[in-house]
Amino acid sequence: MKIDSQTERRIIFIVLFIAVMLPLIFPIGWTSEVSPHVQMTYDMVDNTPEGSVVLLSFDYDPSTATELQPMAISLIEHAWKNNQRVIATALWPMGVKMADAAFQELLLKYPSKESGVDFVNLGYKTGGMVTIQAMGRDMKSVFPTDTKTIPYEDIPLLKTVRSLKDIQFVISLSAGDPGIKQWIMGAHDMFGVKVAGGTTAVSAPGFLPYINSQNQLYGLLGGLKAASEYEQLLGIVGPATVKMDSQSVAHVLILVFIAIGNVKAYKKRNSKKEGK
Amino acid sequence: MVSTMSVLGTWIGVFFTLSIFSFLFKDNPFYKFAEQVFIGLSAGYGLIYLIYNVLIPNLFHKLIFDFSHNVILLIPATLGLMMLLRLIPSLQWLSKYPLAVVIGTAVGISMLRYMQSDFLNQLTATMINPLAGATKVEIVGNFLLIIGTICGIYFFYFSRKKEGIYSVPSRIGIWFLMISFGASFGYTVMARVSLLIGRLDFLLKDWLHIIK
Predict the structure, then answer these.
(1) Per-residue pLDDT at B53
(2) For a tag on chain A, would you pick the N or C end, based on fewer CB atoms within 10 A?
(3) pLDDT of residue A233
(4) What pLDDT digit, counting tens, does each position of A214-261 carry?
(5) Interchain proximity B194–A13, CB inside 8 Å
(6) Which long-range contacts link B82-89 to residues 24+ away (Cβ below 8 Å)?
């Protein structure tokens, strides 16, 4: 029976749908090894002293929440476990809501954490790298209030924070531009602040060269797999871990499709040669 | 108790998710409708967000309540208004000036930063002692980094015909480039599958309540 290419496409989509859906309903529980770049990020957070102020930049929107939101939740949880205080900022407008959602989810688990003392959401600022440069000089001029319109000087967490130099590390969760690159250029290369990043899998290869002897990046989380590895390091079964079964099954299936496609192409080429 | 608005929101989300997925079968009016609504909503949301979170607090609020300390803001305000003159054909030429300021400033800032971060620091990062690695894997990695960088750059050197011995580093460079493209493709597949997982998770959890 001959199947036309349009029907072939549809069969592939349906099989892929089922392959992704089934592990969500019936989890398999596969585990994966922690990669070095995830371990580096974990170590950076883990080795930061208690009481330190750290900054998470939410440079993404809901379209990439599947990959980046689990990272945000794990990173905040790790910081809170170590009694570090978290400042959230956003270079993307919707990042503000993503930060709020992450804090709200974690407050159910850590009800003693207090807004303004253990965490603060300073909101969105336009400008990308220019904003980061300004933060390196004076944070208050960039964020005169938090998202609840509480003035900067009235927020206890920010009492010791005058500029980016008073922050132990910055982690940018980034789905594009502005994002990690601007933080490397602005915060690390201008002011010497430690920078790590979390990004979508599609963007991850572009940031790998920044993990180098110059320490432009102190660690990188790339995609859902890295998010699940971070959850593994924290010892929790979070949203990324649950979804990794589907990811793994889909990858195996795509490999099978690639193999079938190559066999078909090989056969087609041979039959053409024989035809000549 | 789940609010009516929350349920309605979920159903709207489901409708648009399925409408977009329907394109996989073939192009249809549901897909087109969802696509147009998405574009319109994004543009509308972006505009309103910028007005309330950028223009009002950073410009109007400062000019109205503390004019004497913020006179300088009149310059970007004027440039912004000049940009809008693109809408009037006879005054369209005036919009070129704010555009020139934006481009000039962006290039000036970016050039310095890119030169430092993407050129000097990246170059310095490859100037390492390859034998200084702590493990054998690290030493091999250091050699690969140096060979890959040199051969990769050599591939883009076009001032001499690559024949004989001169073609060897170029061919090695192609291998490094192909491997990096393969890695990028793998990561891209992972990202796209993640998006599908996200939508199916929404359908199964928030809509059908099959999973927790």
Answers:
(1) 84
(2) N
(3) 96
(4) 999 999 999 999 999 999 999 999 999 999 999 999 999 999 999 999
(5) no
(6) none
Q: How far apart are CA B205 and CA B212, in angstroms?
A: 6
Contact between A201 and B196 using a beta-carbon 8 Å cutoff: no
CB contact under 8 A, A202 and B116: no
* CA–CA separation, B179 and B190 (whole Å): 17
- CA distance, residue A26 to nearest chain B CA (Å): 9
Closest Cα in chain B, distance from residue A45 (Å):
23
CA distance B185 to chain A (A): 8
Residues 6 or more apart in contact with residue B49 via CB below 8 angstroms? A93
Instruction: Give the pLDDT mean for A10-22.
Output: 95
The answer, for B198 touching chain A at a CB cutoff of 8 Å, is: yes
Q: Where are the domains of chain B?
A: 1-65, 83-127, 128-212
Q: How many CB atoms lie within 10 A of CB B206?
A: 15
Contact A189 B128 (CB under 8 A): no
Distance, in Å, from the CA atom of A217 to the CA atom of A45, rounded to the nearest integer, reads 13
Q: Please report the ipTM that was assigned to this predicted complex.
A: 0.88
Architecture of the domain whose range is A36-236 = 3-Layer(aba) Sandwich (3.40)
Residue of B nearest to A7 (CA): B25
Q: How many helices (H) and strands (E) does chain A have?
A: 11, 6
Neighbours of B12 (CB within 10 A): 11
Q: Do B201 and A185 touch (CB under 8 A)?
A: no
Distances (CA, A) of A13 to B23, B112, B150: 11, 47, 42
Q: Is the confidence at residue B1, as pLDDT, over 60?
A: no
Distance of residue A233 Cα from the nearest chain B Cα, in angstroms: 21
Q: Is B65 on the interface with A (CB under 8 A)?
A: no
Q: How confident is the model at residue A124 (pLDDT cuts 50, 70, 90)?
A: very high
* The pair of three-digit structure tokens given for residue A70, joined into one six-digit string: 């689990």
Averaged pLDDT of chain A: 94
CB A107 within 8 A of CB A77: no
CB contact under 8 A, A254 and B191: no
Q: List the single residue in A with minimal CA-CA distance to B21.
A: A13
Chain A residues whose CB is inside 8 A of the B76 CB are: none
Residue ranges, comma separated, of all CATH 3.40.50 domains in chain A are: 36-236
Nearest to B194 among A184, A189, A201 (CB): A201
Residues A24-32 have a mean pLDDT of 89
Q: How confident is the model at residue A2 (pLDDT cuts 50, 70, 90)?
A: confident
